[in-house]
Each structure stands twice: as C-alpha cells, then as structure tokens.
Give the backbone structure.
Amino acid sequence: MHWRQTWLGAALALAATLGTAQSRAGAASAGTAETRAADVAVAGGSAEDGAIRKVIADYGRAIETRDLELFKAVKPNLTQDEERRTRAAFDAVKSQAVKITVLSVDVDGDAAVVRVSRRDTINGSLVSSFPQTFRLARGKAGWGIQEIGK
C-alpha cells in the first residue's frame, strides 16, 4: 500500500506544517456555520466577521486546489521551511477536500482568534478530523493568518 503511505504522509506533513500534528475528532456545535472550503462563509455577523471567515474559507480552498500563491496570500508570514513542506504535501496528493466548521470568531481590535473544527478527505478517504485555532491580524491589505495551531 505504498500509495496510501504517500498520501497519508503528505496529509500529516501538511497538518504538521499548519500546526496540527495530532488529529482529534471535532464535533460541530449547534448553530455553527458549516462550509466546504470552496464556499465563502460570509453569512451573518459584522463586516469584520465576514472578512475573517473569507480568509478561513480561502485557506481551505488553497489546500483543496493546492494553490500555493493563495496559501501565501492568506498566510503572508509563511516561512521558507513551511512553504517547502506545504509544496511537498500539495505535490503528494491527487485530491484533498477540506470541510471547515467555524465554531467561534473573537475580534479584539486588529487581532482575531478563530476556532474551527476541520475534516480532511484525501484521495477520497477520510483522513482526519481535528480542531484548529487560527490567530489573525488585520494589516493594510486586510486580515491575514499569523498563526495556525491546535
């Protein structure tokens, strides 16, 4: 099962790149906005909330489409090492679907914390479900991901 080891390794490498080395089951709570990464989740809330949710949706879409430029656009502080690992993970999979459920968006001035539940399907097989926490900052170009953690 060499192909399975390859895409599983790629998924784990990408998860590690994004600060989620361990997978955990994440249950969506009632009233949360469930979206596929390809959808822009801007329904409800303030303009800030909508802009932040769009960054999270674009992050998921970047992974699904293996679009490194979009990934760098939503995480402008991506290091060279993170970029190398992300590129390797993108190259190692045929397809990846990312389902992100936004659990909360907390804005404090030009900083925001977004808690999500994420489920990845790689090459048609469910690989993992886990929580993620994003720390965003608002700059001249708008909101961007500064840190991705568990």
